[in-house]
Amino acid sequence: MAVFVSSRLQKKLPHQQPAIPALVLLLFHLSLGFDPAHSTVNSSTSSTGDGGIYSSSQSWQKEKLNPSQNLTMSDVFIGSRCDIFSGHWVHDFSYPLYDWSKCPYIDGEFDCQKNGRPDSDYEKWRWKPRYCNIRRFNAVDMLQKLRGKTLMFVGDSLNRDQWQSMICLLHAALPQARTYYVSGDTLSTFKALDYGVSVSFYRAPYLVDMVTTTVQGQQKVVLRLDSAEINGRGWKGADILVFNSGHWWTHTGNLRGWDYMQEGNRFYTTMDQMVAYQKGMATWGNWIDSNIDPRRTKVFFRSFSPSHSSITNGGNCYSEKEPTAGSSYLGAYPPQFQVAERVVRSMRSPVSFLNITTLSLLRQDAHPSVYSNDLTVGQRKNPQRYADCSHWCLPGLPDIWNELLYSALFYV
Ligand SMILES: *[C@@H]1O[C@H](CO)[C@@H](O)[C@H](O)[C@H]1NC(C)=O
Ligand SMILES: *[C@@H]1O[C@H](CO)[C@@H](O)[C@H](O)[C@H]1NC(C)=O
Ligand SMILES: *[C@@H]1O[C@H](CO)[C@@H](O)[C@H](O)[C@H]1NC(C)=O
Predict the structure, then answer these.
(1) Ligand 3 contact via 355 beta carbon (within 6 Å)
(2) Considering only CA atoms, which of 228, 210, 166 is closest in space to residue 192?
(3) Would you kindly state where each structural domain of the chain is located, as residue ranges?
(4) Which terminus of the chain, N or C, has fewer Cβ atoms within 10 Å?
């Protein structure tokens, strides 16, 4: 057993803050259930798993694989009741699904190979759900299915990570095709013009509105716990929305994104982090319930993306080269996980919960660590303090989140 502590997100913000107290103890269970074989698909496997992606109603018709279709190792069988998020990692040298040097959209902070990361095995793992297999990402199939549609990722830099993964995955299938790309402060968009497909990222780390306003004669940043109207204007019209939020709610000190929190006419300078997060998530949920037509728009919430740093040996994700074997995770989940889960469960709209927290907890090897271009040479020599153990290298883990999203959209 190894003991890890979640560290807060450090990106885009000063690194000079005081050391962060350990917030959550995360225990990894090192089970022996690791499958060393490069699994072959046994198409007679029955799916007996419970759960899977839950949603409060089923509105989108999913394409089911025809059982008479021939199945190969990568052309995959998915059982309708299979929990695609419960499983283990399998070493697979057919990954990664794209070449970092050929994808022009990767931010320097995620571009680990370009930044000199010496190992690359972390790119070569496939997710194997326990009772089924997920379909390998097929960019042309994805583009054809998305034809004329808009897929929008909304949230913080972890969703920017996933968005860039998605556009790299798609770009790899159409290197010569006509594309459009613009990166903005709030909205960034990639388009595959021949398919009329738009894949964008809307930055809203708290999901709820954040405004600059005058409070007691001074310009202040106010986080409106009870409003998502301003941000929501940017979300209307998307056909598929993938949300996340979590890390920013626990930032304190220099890293805190707001001066006041506002609810109704009341302003707060402090509030219990998870209470605030619960309020913000509920506001987001109400906005979805009142503004989204489930026949038109499919909504996902991607569960909390865990950070890794260790208190046992003074290290952290630095120099980790392999995933944790097995599939179980026995420790307490980051508290954001349960808050988001409760809100999603209580919503009237059919929101699919992309439950990637556990499978990502097993991937301490997949963070940029010191191979982020945000770090100075000096900072790279002090991984205990500066390693980025929150974001993920590209190619890497977010590609698998997108494979799961692809399955969840069209094949589960
Ligand atoms: C598939 O699984 C069934 C049931 O476990 C087994 O009888 C069969 O031999 C397996 N087939 C292959 C190709 O592994
Ligand atoms: C499936 O396999 C059979 C036998 O190998 C072959 O005749 C058939 O054309 C294949 N079907 C498809 C859809 O590939
Ligand atoms: C998420 O997945 C983990 C791992 O399979 C599982 O233990 C947990 O119950 C799941 N949670 C939800 C809300 O589906």
Answers:
(1) yes
(2) 166
(3) 2-35+55-410
(4) N
Q: Tokens 């997949």 appear where?
A: 366
Amino acid at 338: Q
**Cα of 403 from ligand 1 centre, angstroms:** 26
Q: What is the 3-state secondary structure (H, E, C) of 349-387?
A: CCEEEECCHHHHHCCHHHCCECCCCCCCHHHHCCHHHHC
Half-sphere exposure of 112 (CA within 13 A, CB side): 26
Q: Is CATH 1.20.1300.10 correct for 2-35+55-410?
A: no
Rounded Cα distance, 167 and 192, in Å? 9
**46-78 pLDDT, tens per residue?**
333 333 444 433 334 444 444 444 444 333 444
Which of 99, 119, 302, 326 lies closest to 207 in space, CA to CA?
A: 302
E strands along 78-182, which residues?
87-91, 125-129, 150-155, 179-182
Question: Which one of 35, 40, 41, 42 would you pick to mutate in the ligand 1 pocket, going by the greatest count of ligand atoms within 8 A of its CB?
Answer: 42
Residue 172 · residue 102 · CB < 8 Å = yes
DSSP 242: E
**Which atom of ligand 3 sits closest to the CA of residue 87?**
5
- For residues 77 and 112, give the distance between their C-alpha atoms in angstroms, rounded to a whole number: 33
pLDDT of residue 61: 42
pLDDT per residue as tens digits for the range 240-282: 999 999 999 988 888 889 999 999 999 999 999 999 999 999 9
